[in-house]
Amino acid sequence: MSHKNCVFCDIITGKIHAEKVAETPQLIVIKDTNPKAPTHLLIMPKKHIVTMADVANRDKDLAFAMFAIVEELAKNLDAPQAFNIISNNGAEAGQSVLHMHWHFISGKNIYLGDFKL
Ligand code: 5GP
Ligand code: ZN
């Protein structure tokens, strides 16, 4: 189910290296190469899904896994439970990699300063 010309599919198949911090049967979590905060991770399905609007009923295991991994990641933060989840969906909304992902951001209050994903 890997999609050609998708950098995240290439990371999932191992064609491109990324710093992986967690993996489940449904998803992987990697460090963002251009971090905007002390902790900036990307949570993404292994399956090529373009946006959150393409998550269907058959993907309910994935939807649960996304929430479960957030709980795991939140446990390991310096400031427990203080994090942002951001998802850009569609190029017009700022999505640059068209493989659905959640930005998991922590260690910085993004509402102070000129934060921009
Ligand atoms: P978007 O703009 O689609 O919401 O977020 C895409 C994110 O993927 C950006 O924060 C960008 O820094 C990150 N990114 C793009 N290419 C790579 C890559 O090859 N490896 C990793 N680890 N992150 C990437
Ligand atoms: Zn993909």
Structural class: alpha+beta
* Residue-averaged pLDDT: 94
CATH superfamily annotation: HIT-like
Task: Please report the distance between the alpha carbons of the first and last residues.
Answer: 28 Å
What is the N-to-C succession of helices and strands? Answer: HEEEHEE
Strand percentage lies at 15-25%
Oligomerization category of the chains in this entry: single chain
Enumerate the distinct ligands: guanosine-5'-monophosphate, zinc ion
Q: What's the architecture, going by CATH?
A: 2-Layer Sandwich
| Cα-atom radius of gyration | 14 Å
Q: What is the number of beta strands?
A: 5
- What is the CATH C-level name? Alpha Beta
Overall geometry: globular
Q: Could you characterize the architecture of this molecule?
A:
- With 117 residues, the protein is of the alpha+beta class.
- The chain has one domain (7-106): HIT family, subunit A, CATH 3.30.428.
- It contains two helices and five strands, in the order H-E-E-E-H-E-E.
- The protein has helices at residues 7-12, 60-75; strands spanning 20-23, 27-31, 39-45, 84-86, 102-106.
- A five-stranded antiparallel β-sheet has the order 1-2-3-5-4, with helices on one face.
- Strand 2 and strand 3 form a beta hairpin.
- The longest helix is centred in the middle third of the chain and has 16 residues, at 60-75.
- The chain is globular.
- The protein starts with 6 loop residues before the first helix and ends in an 11-residue tail after the last strand.
- The model has no long low-confidence stretch (mean pLDDT 94).
- The protein binds guanosine-5'-monophosphate and zinc ion.
- Residues 3, 6, 8-9, 48, 99 line the site of zinc ion.
